[in-house]
Amino acid sequence: MPGSLLLIEDEPGIAESILYAMRSDGFTIAWHATGAAGMAALARSAVDLVILDVGLPDGNGFDLCRELRRTSSVPVLFLTARSGEVDRVVGLEIGGDDYVVKPFSPRELVARVRAILRRTRGGSDQTTAQCGPFQLDERRQAMRFHGQPLPLSPSQYRLLAALVRRPGWVFSRGQLLDVLGEGDDPSLERTIDSHIKDLRLRLHALDPTCDAIVTHRGAGYAMREDW
Questions:
Q1: Long-range contacts formed by 98-104: CB under 8 A, 24+ apart
Q2: Phi/psi at 8 (nearest 5 deg)?
Q3: Among candidate residues 212, 207, 197, 209, the one with its CA nearest the CA of residue 161
Q4: Which of 15, 69, 129, 227 is an S-S bond match for 95, by CB 3.0 to 4.6 Å?
């Protein structure tokens, strides 16, 4: 289970308690106090999970996660002093995997990190997620379909990866635009329909019986969960 973690947190006291707890549990963890330093570290080397503070001295952790999701699907666990439901929902909708409110128990944080890694790794040594005939390899940014490599454009990969990670979760067009890093311009939402159509055609060409992506009229799209 243990792997490599990146902590982006500006409060030294909190950071030190997290570092101690994670290292005691066998994880390798690096710490950076600003978003810019954390992003630079991610550009240099991959990690299995990012623990990200929402309130950073050089920006907002939510904005940092949006930027990260344009190029990476690494799991993100938010740390924040905000306990409101809206903040929790926003954190999850933009691509976060969990949300922990300060103050918190370091041991609980370790348990949550382990739970995320079990889910995203799919029980293997690689960072993977499994859903029906799909296997997502997060570290290699690759998708397999019925055990075979599935050639995808960068946009197709990001959309399909988001759906595979959360079977049954209905993503609005706006949320999927955010996955693509296209912002929240409503005029672009119909491009999602085009991407989904192309994905369906590609999957049907390989397996005519596969109806993987479900349309929820007026709401958005979801990955089948009844495989």
A1: 102/14, 104/79
A2: -115, 100
A3: 212
A4: 69
Q: What pLDDT score was predicted for residue 215?
A: 96
Q: Which domains does the chain have, with CATH numbers?
A: 4-121 (3.40.50.2300), 128-223 (1.10.10.10)
What is the structure's pLDDT at 86?
Answer: 56
Residue 60 has pLDDT above 70, yes or no: yes
pLDDT attached to residue 199:
95
Average of pLDDT values for 9-15? 96
CA distance 87 to 54: 10
